[in-house]
């Protein structure tokens, strides 16, 4: 790539603006990161993930912009919120020159405790259908870090018939070793295969399988909800329950559909 050509992608991180978080419900979770009273879900983790991506792509100006303190970042995002009384889906976008912007979209109301407790499932909450992609994705900086270059994920969703972001459906993407990398828009968690082993009951793919270092994934690991373990396609069982998470919806129950 020529040094005179701006990259054709930006760094992104999607997060939730949730008014209920401002009331301090995050204090119910031991591992929830500061700032506890922020309405932005896992804000510190989103900043960390964007900095890691900017460093990977050697975007010096982006790193400098992202290293502002959290209160300054929150003030920057605050300016984009149209109505502070309702939840929003936000997408922080950062380009190679260190310019940041925030895309704002409506999002459905939900029980805010779903953001905090992976074992808490509100009655009436939908169970997501979790499909498995028939093709493979080669791990790269574009799978490890979240950017606007998401054609592989869009294609995987279309291959299993997911055509709208509103669908309660997900597809697991696989690397060339047939290992689960992640979901197209979520981190997946499966029941531990060795029942007798000590540790959490749930496992999630390690970053060495090629997937994204998601914010809710980091939170679930810090909480002790799960541990990392390689998960192959052959390990998956039709109809087994699982969990999914992301920075907008928190934790959702799923069921594997093979």
TrEMBL record:
InterPro entries: Aminotrans_IV, Aminotransferase-like, BCAT-like_C, BCAT-like_N
Name of the protein in its database record: Aminodeoxychorismate lyase
Gene3D superfamilies xref list: 3.30.470.10, D-amino Acid Aminotransferase, subunit A, domain 2 (3.20.10.10)
MF annotations from Gene Ontology: catalytic activity
Pfam family of the protein (one): Aminotran_4
Regions annotated as coiled coil: none
């Amino acid at each position: 790539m020529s040094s005179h050509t701006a990259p054709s992608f930006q760094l992104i991180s999607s997060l939730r603006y949730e008014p209920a978080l401002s009331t301090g419900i995050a204090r119910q979770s031991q591992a929830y990161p500061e700032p506890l009273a922020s309405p932005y879900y896992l804000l510190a983790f989103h900043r960390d993930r964007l900095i890691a991506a900017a460093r990977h792509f050697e975007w010096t100006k982006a790193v400098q912009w992202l290293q502002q303190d959290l209160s300054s970042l929150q003030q920057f995002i605050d300016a984009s919120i149209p109505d502070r009384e309702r939840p929003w889906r936000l997408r922080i976008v950062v380009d190679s020159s260190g310019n940041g912007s925030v895309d704002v979209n409506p999002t459905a109301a939900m029980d805010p405790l779903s953001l905090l407790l992976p074992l808490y499932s509100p009655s009436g909450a939908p169970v997501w259908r979790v499909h498995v992609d028939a093709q493979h994705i080669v791990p790269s900086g574009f799978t490890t870090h979240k950017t606007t270059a998401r054609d592989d994920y869009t294609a995987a969703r279309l291959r299993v018939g997911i055509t709208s972001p509103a669908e309660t459906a997900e597809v697991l993407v696989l690397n060339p070793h047939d290992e689960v990398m992640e979901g197209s828009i979520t981190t997946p968690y499966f029941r531990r295969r060795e029942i007798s082993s000590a540790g959490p009951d749930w496992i999630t793919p390690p970053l060495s399988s090629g997937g994204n270092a998601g914010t809710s994934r980091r939170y679930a690991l810090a909480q002790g909800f799960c541990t990392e373990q390689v998960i192959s396609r052959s390990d998956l069982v039709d109809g087994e329950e699982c969990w999914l998470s992301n920075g907008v919806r928190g934790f959702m129950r799923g069921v594997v559909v093979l």
